Amino acid sequence: MTHLKPINRKAHRVVDLTKANDGRDVVALQQLPAPPHFPLGCSLAFSPGWEADSTGGTAGLCQPVERDIFDCHLGCFWPAHVPDQLNHSPNWTGTCATAQKDWRKLDLVFPG
Amino acid sequence: MFALQRREFHQFQGGGREFLYLVPSAAVFELDEPGRAVLDFLDGTTCSEDCLVDGLSARFPAPLIRETILDLLNARAIGLEHLQDGEGPKQLPMMPFPLNTLVLNVTNQCNLACTYCYEYGEDKIVDTEHGQQSKFMSETTAREAVDLLLKESGRVAHMTFFGGETLLNFPVLKSTIAYARAQAAAAGKTIDFSLTTNATLLRTDIIEFLAENEIGVTISMDGPKDLQNKFRIFHNGAGSYEVVAPKIKELLKTHRTRPIGARVTLTSETIDVTRIYRHLTEEFGFWEVGFAPVTTSPQQQYAISDHGFDRMLGQFRELGQEFLEHAVENRHHGFSNVKDTLEEIHKGVSKAYPCGAGLGLLGVSTDGDIAVCHRFAGSDKHKLGTVKTGIDRAAQADFLEQHHIADKTDCHTCWARPLCSGGCYHEAHVRYGTTRRPNLHYCEWIRGWTDTCLQIYGELAVRNPDFIARFDRDEARAEAVL
């Protein structure tokens, strides 16, 4: 803060809190974040993840959950390690035509 | 583009600078020129960031305005119009809340008959003359109170003796202190003692006992002879000044182990703050003097009216100015009303309850009933257990549930609520018949006085920041001792 000088102890705590938070925060859709709200992650691909949507509903979430593997590793960043299908493992999902049935066939990939 | 608007705060000046007191966080910030310009621009209106940048472009470059807006947003001095911050959830304190101070009404009898007294006058809550209560606390009850305090307290406990006239029951007071010291030592806790007295019964041996045992003493006294004798009289109508004056002088001369303060009750007929202060500090040598307006229903002649509150505020401001000049030069000044408020401002206190009553402080009546505070001691309606059976935690939780600031809707638009939180429960009970109501009859006075203290705080922040840093050092020292 450059235009407000903290004077009392509480003001210093407010400044510390501001420093700790660079202005960006993780919010649940149900908290009705202030527009303009740019969701990051799966929401960009219009297939929300595990979180309830902004009305508290779950009907539009990824179903079956196994589909997440495809949605997430192709559409956006997948926080768990998923094989890089673009460069090293183009055929990783070759045996998995329908994730709902075939997800067990997805195998581990060892760096060769 | 979303519209920005001002949030809740109180703006004040001190030492030629501009400050913000934010509500409800109670943070105090100094504003710079652009900050002030943005807030002025938003006064009574809403406006988007771009519109602010345009509106102030003649005075400040755009990046500077945007930076200022971000700072003000972060401190919540401004916010988006469509997104209100709200009051936040009603959070009750964690239970069981540790007991910090226990006030023992060692007697409900008094050898004075002060006309304005809340305990015996028309506004009394408990009939101590014809009621069921014992007139003096027994040694057994006092010991049970000690046991309760040491069981429920943290590492430090405070015990205060009160009355009636406290010293009418000096034998019990004396033996209780000895018992409490031994029990505290056995429990590995620290305990300290204080009492309030009208000074009429002070004797050399009592004074020596108080000094030796480092008992904090507060003397109830209203000032020079003409003011003291107006209300503080014996049962036969004779004034008490002549009796107490030599005794107080002896006390102040002999008792040097704790600073001794005077507590003055102001009425419509005795509002003479500076003269009282001078008399008590210069004639007697009191270290501190605290003033409080009399607690009474409005129809009493001595009740302070709106006009009286204005007069009192004017006098408080004058004496506050004197405090400020002393503080700038690091000299002691004993106007304790300012010092106490400055400390709360410095810490950024934002209260859910007006005081510690029913929370960390409890009162005990002569027969051992626990009350919200000493002013309700003996009242069945305000009972929170007994020293024998312990604190009634359910009743206490109920009390805290009912008295939270979140339920005092009248206070929700007031910028002084972080410090006031509705004011004294007892005052409200006498005035409105219920402890739950805020004391709306002195709102203007509270805001006026809080504003004065904020100005003093601001000016000290500019002229002698070391004075306010002392509050931190004192606290650090106290914690180090523990």
The tally of beta strands of chain B, per DSSP, is: 16
- What's the arrangement of strands in the largest beta sheet of chain B? 12-11-10-9-8-7-13-14-15-16
H/E series of chain A = EHHH
For the record, give the distance between the C-alpha atoms at the N and C termini of chain A, rounded to a whole number.
51 Å
Which CATH architecture of the largest domain in chain B is right? Alpha-Beta Barrel
- Count up the domains of chain A: 1
Question: What this model shows, in words?
Answer:
The complex is a heterodimer of chains A (about 110) and B (about 475). Chain A is built from three helices and one strand, in the order E-H-H-H. With about 110 residues, chain A is an all-alpha fold. The longest helix of chain A is centred in the first third of the chain and has 12 residues. Chain A is elongated and about 65 Å long. The termini of chain A are far apart. About 5% of the residues of chain A have low confidence. Chain B has two domains: about 80 residues, Alpha-Beta Complex (Outer Surface Protein A, domain 3); about 300 residues, Aldolase class I (TIM Barrel, Alpha-Beta Barrel), CATH 3.20.20. Chain B is about 40% helix and about 15% strand. Chain B has a ten-stranded mixed sheet. A three-stranded antiparallel sheet of chain B has the order 5-1-6. A three-stranded antiparallel sheet of chain B has the order 2-3-4. In chain B, strand 15 and strand 16 form a beta hairpin. The radius of gyration of chain B is 24 Å and the shape is globular. The N and C termini of chain B lie far apart (about 55 Å). Classes of the chains: A mainly alpha (about 110), B alpha/beta (about 475). Chains A and B meet through strand 1 and helix 1 of A and strand 3, strand 4, helix 3, helix 11 and helix 15 of B.
